[in-house]
Structure formats: structure tokens, C-alpha cells
């Protein structure tokens, strides 16, 4: 669920794609396992967990918000313990707010603040995925794809039903509010699965499942007055993504498996409990088991912990997967590099003589390179020097002995101490005119956002309320517009005459890392 008194996570996948302006996925480049021997089977435990505002905003003693934002580090430690107790190998995190890599580091794991996925196995951000999914190397030289999502929380469908809405009312709501948020996953992930890649999709879907709101359930649960084919779960199932919890526990009457909510500062006074957190799978994989992770003694909780550190229960599913050989790829460990530091780059190559990883400037000139190693080496990491190079965008390229480009992606180099910057195009805009924005050296996290803030009485207070906003699409540098089609425009657009700034805030959090100069709306 989430974010009633503060922000609503809005259309994460769809907005990321729209902001980036790039096609998601590169499935057509994926190789098969042919020529590489039969795929080994690996058993992995995949978990989904909404950690509640970054994992450090819930007071374990009072079960209310911490008295200061991000003020409860003990709760974050309890999140780590939940992951350990669940014996998870891979975790998709919702409401991470800059904490995915923090938690991963504390566990001794790998993590991606861009995709909100962490794992005890190496995590690779492949070219073309645009943060929609990562590869997790669950066996040497073989991967599965893992994606994570968090659909909008409001308006919440079960509340509409509780308050008298009809089946058609709720179908219309879900098709408008939440179904667009999983379109990118439906477009990209099944294609990976068709090409032999095991896929896991984790998330807080903020929607019940069509597998749960059946006629049999309607006859036993007062808050389910009729069966509903909930559009999000139905569309994902049609695309070939299987609900692992219901595969392991197929009877929703006997085992509801509620994940919302074990208790929340944002719970509704007349709460409707439901199963809205899922681990889905596709491709060469099989569900072995699945259970709820939550408060000790809670309903259907298979892995219990006390005190429980978040307002959602999690789910952990054991999968048998046949990991795939990845495509040729180069994947820098970071997309933003301080000049003078080395840049580690993970690669998968054909393994022929003369292959190399190189750094190219904007004119296509090679400014640094390293061989992938001796002939036959297909997987590894090389480090590229950046000392003496200029600031700006560069290409990281994997090439053959003949110079053919096998894979390419981008990185940005900045001098030491370079701040994050955000700016507007002009100092004055007319009321209703879209605001041009630019940014550089952004954190590049999955839900970085840029919002307009008012400066009443010519004072731009740090604690002022956000207004209309847009997401950066996890881009390090970029340009965009905030206007009538942006998030929050229904309440805040057109901007009233006055003075404003825009701020860049990382990963759906409320901490600003850059602010523009003041501009005027006349």
C-alpha cells in the first residue's frame, strides 16, 4: 500500500520509460544456451518486501512514525534481520528511499538503487534495461532477470468496494490507475522469458489478485461481496507471469496470505486486509514453495519476526530455475565516475582473441581500454582508468578483434566535488506555460524526482510542500518539462503567479540534493 499522509508512488515503470524516452529492454540481443551446454538447475529464494519509507521511519515501540524523519536506524536493522530470517537470496524492495544499497552493503550483498533489487549473488545492470530489470548471476556465467515494481496506492480498489462501489466501478479504477503502471513489465519481461531467461517480478502491486477474489472467497469473506478479475494480476498472468504464492498455496479460502497490513500508521480506520505483495515468475523456472514473512504469530505467516519492522508483510518464494547465458554486454559498476578513479566494468563476451573493453569520448576516440583476457574468457571485470580525462558523457564499449561493437552503454565523468545540479530554462514563465528543466550528476536512483516548490513571501523554505513533479527516469543527466501532464498537476497546475524553485530529490524521498535558482510565474 503506502503513502497516504505524504507522497503517492506514481506509475513507477511507465514514468521511468516515458522520462527516459528510450525503448525498454534489449531482448532481441539475447543469446540462447545453445552451444554452451545444458543449463544447470539452481534453487533460489526470491523475496518481496515493502520496507516503509526507507526502513528507518517506523518506531518499533510505538508503531507510529519516528519523531524525526529517518530517525529510527534500529528499524532498518530489523529489516536486515527479516531478510536473513527469510533466508532470501534475492529481494525486491519497495519504498526503498535510498536504502537498497545500504541494506545490501550491511548484509555483504550486491544491490541496485536503480532497480531496487539486492542479492547475495552479483547484480548486473545490463545495457538497454533502463532500470526496469537487472541480471542476477545465480551461477557462474549464467543469469536470471529480476524486476521490481510499486504501483500507485490511491485510490485503493478494495476501499471502493467496501464503500459500495460496483464490480464495474473497480474494474474501471484499476484499468485507469494501476494497469498502466505494469505495461512496461508486460511488454519486456515475457520476451526475456521466451528467449530462455528465468524471470522474477517482485512488487507491492496495491491490488488484490484475481486468484483471490473468486466466487468461493466471496461466499466466505464479508469484505469480498463479489468475484473480481482484477486487471493487474489478470494481465500479468495472461503475459505468462505466474503467481508463486498461489502456485504453492492454491486455496485462497483456506490460506488467504494477507500482506496488507499487519498494522500501519497509515491504515484505514475500517481496514480491508488483502494479499497485494507478490513474487511472480516466468521462463524456465518452477515454484517449490512460497510463504508469508511477517510478525511472529500473524495469520499465514511462515517466517515470523518480532517486532515486525514495516507495514507490509513480505513474501519469500523458493524457485527452481535454469539460468541463462547472458547476451554480450558491458555493465559499468557505476554510471557516474569521479575523474581520476578507476571504472570497474563487468562484461560477457564471446571469448575470442583480441576482444576488449574500451572507454570512448563523444568524438568516438578511444581514451582507455583493457583486454578481456586470454582467448576463451567470456565473463569477468576490467578496470578502466579515467585520470586526466575531461568531464562529460562517454561510451563504454565491448568490441571484437576487428573492431565490431558487441555492446555499448553510457557513463558520465565529473571532477571531484562536482555537485548535483538542477535548473530551469528561464527566469520567468507565464501562468500555464510548461517549465523546462535540466539536471546533471543526479544520483541515478530508480525514483529520482524533480518537483516545483513555492517560495511564499520570497522565501524558499526547505520544508515547503512539493507541488507538481516528474521523474528523471534514473538518468544521470537529462532534460524535461513539468506541466499539465506531470504528476500532481490535477491539484497544482497551472501554477499560481508567484516565485518558485525546482528541487531534485533522490529515490522518492523527501531529501533535496539540488535546487534551481528562483523563477517567477507571472
Per the CATH scheme, the topology name of the largest domain is Deoxyribonuclease I, Chain A
Instruction: Enumerate the strands of the largest sheet in spatial order, edge to edge or round the barrel.
Output: 3-4-2-1-13-11-12
Within CATH, the superfamily of the largest domain carries the name Endonuclease/exonuclease/phosphatase
Strands, total number: 30
Note the main sheet: 7 strands, mixed
Top-tier CATH class of the largest domain? Alpha Beta
State the helical fraction: 10-25%
Number of domains: 3
Structural class: alpha+beta
Number of helices, counting only DSSP H or I runs of 4 residues or more: 10
Sum up the overall morphology in one term: globular
What distance lies between the first and last C-alpha atoms, to the nearest angstrom? 39 Å
| Integer average pLDDT | 93
**Quaternary state of the chains:** single chain
The proportion of residues in beta strands is 25-35%
Low-confidence stretches are 2-36
Rg result? 23 Å
How does this structure look, described?
With 522 residues, the chain is an alpha+beta fold. It has three domains: 302 residues, Endonuclease/exonuclease/phosphatase (Deoxyribonuclease I, Chain A, 4-Layer Sandwich), CATH 3.60.10; 86 residues, Immunoglobulin-like (Sandwich); 101 residues, Sandwich (Immunoglobulin-like), CATH 2.60.40. It contains ten helices and 30 strands. Strands 3-4-2-1-13-11-12 form a seven-stranded mixed β-sheet. The protein is globular, with a radius of gyration of 23 Å.
Amino acid at each position: 500500500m503506502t503513502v497516504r499522509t505524504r507522497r503517492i508512488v506514481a506509475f513507477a515503470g511507465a514514468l521511468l520509460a516515458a522520462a527516459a524516452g528510450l525503448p525498454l529492454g534489449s531482448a532481441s540481443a539475447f543469446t540462447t544456451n545453445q552451444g554452451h551446454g545444458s543449463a544447470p538447475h539452481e534453487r533460489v529464494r526470491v523475496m518481496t518486501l515493502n520496507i516503509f519509507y526507507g526502513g528507518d521511519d517506523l518506531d518499533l515501540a510505538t508503531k507510529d512514525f519516528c519523531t524525526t524523519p529517518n530517525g529510527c536506524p534500529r528499524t532498518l536493522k530489523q529489516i536486515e534481520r527479516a531478510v536473513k530470517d527469510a533466508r532470501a537470496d534475492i529481494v525486491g524492495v519497495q519504498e526503498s528511499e535510498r536504502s537498497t544499497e545500504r541494506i545490501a552493503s550491511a548484509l555483504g550483498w550486491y544491490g541496485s538503487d536503480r532497480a531496487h533489487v539486492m542479492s547475495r549473488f552479483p547484480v548486473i545492470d545490463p545495457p538497454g534495461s533502463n532500470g526496469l530489470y537487472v541480471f542476477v548471476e545465480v551461477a557462474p556465467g549464467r543469469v536470471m532477470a529480476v524486476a521490481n515494481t510499486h504501483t500507485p496506492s490511491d485510490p485503493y480498489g478494495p476501499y471502493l468496494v467496501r464503500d459500495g462501489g460496483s464490480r464495474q466501478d473497480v474494474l474501471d479504477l484499476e484499468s485507469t490507475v494501476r494497469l498502466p503502471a505494469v505495461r512496461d513489465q508486460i511488454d519486456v519481461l515475457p520476451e526475456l522469458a521466451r528467449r530462455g531467461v528465468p524471470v522474477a517480478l517482485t512488487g507491492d502491486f496495491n491490488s488484490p489478485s484475481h486468484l483471490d477474489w473468486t466466487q468461493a472467497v466471496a461466499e466466505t469473506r464479508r469484505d469480498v461481496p463479489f468475484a473480481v478479475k482484477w486487471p493487474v494480476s489478470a494481465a500479468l498472468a495472461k503475459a505468462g507471469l505466474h503467481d508463486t504464492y498461489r502456485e504453492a498455496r492454491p486455496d485462497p479460502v483456506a490460506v488467504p496470505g494477507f500482506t496488507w497490513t499487519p498494522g500501519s500508521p497509515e491504515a484505514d480506520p475500517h481496514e480491508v486486509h488483502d494479499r497485494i505483495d507478490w513474487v511472480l515468475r516466468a521462463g524456465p523456472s518452477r515454484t517449490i514453495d512460497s510463504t508469508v514473512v511477517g510478525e511472529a504469530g500473524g495469520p499465514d505467516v511462515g517466517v515470523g519476526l518480532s517486532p515486525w519492522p514495516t507495514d507490509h508483510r513480505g513474501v519469500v518464494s523458493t524457485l527452481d530455475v535454469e539460468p541463462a547465458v547472458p547476451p554480450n554486454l558491458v555493465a559499468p559498476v557505476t554510471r557516474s565516475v569521479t575523474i581520476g578513479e578507476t571504472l570497474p566494468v563487468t562484461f560477457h563476451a564471446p571469448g575470442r582473441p583480441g576482444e576488449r573493453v574500451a572507454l570512448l569520448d563523444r568524438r568516438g576516440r578511444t581514451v582507455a581500454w583493457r583486454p578481456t583476457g586470454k582467448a576463451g574468457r567470456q565473463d569477468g571485470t576490467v578496470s578502466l582508468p579515467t585520470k586526466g580525462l575531461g568531464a562529460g558523457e562517454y561510451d563504454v564499449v565491448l568490441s571484437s578483434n576487428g573492431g565490431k561493437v558487441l555492446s555499448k552503454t553510457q557513463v558520465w565523468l565529473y571532477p571531484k566535488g562536482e555537485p548535483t545540479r538542477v535548473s530551469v530554462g528561464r527566469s520567468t514563465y507565464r501562468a500555464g506555460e510548461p517549465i523546462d528543466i535540466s539536471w546533471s550528476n543526479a544520483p541515478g536512483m530508480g525514483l529520482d524526482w524533480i518537483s516545483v516548490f513555492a517560495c511564499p513571501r520570497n522565501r524558499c523554505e526547505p520544508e515547503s510542500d512539493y507541488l507538481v513533479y516528474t521523474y528523471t527516469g534514473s538518468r544521470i543527466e537529462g532534460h524535461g518539462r513539468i506541466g499539465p501532464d506531470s504528476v500532481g498537476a490535477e491539484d497544482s497546475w497551472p501554477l499560481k503567479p508567484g516565485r518558485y524553485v525546482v528541487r531534485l530529490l533522490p529515490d522518492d524521498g523527501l531529501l533535496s540534493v539540488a535546487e534551481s535558482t528562483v523563477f517567477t510565474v507571472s
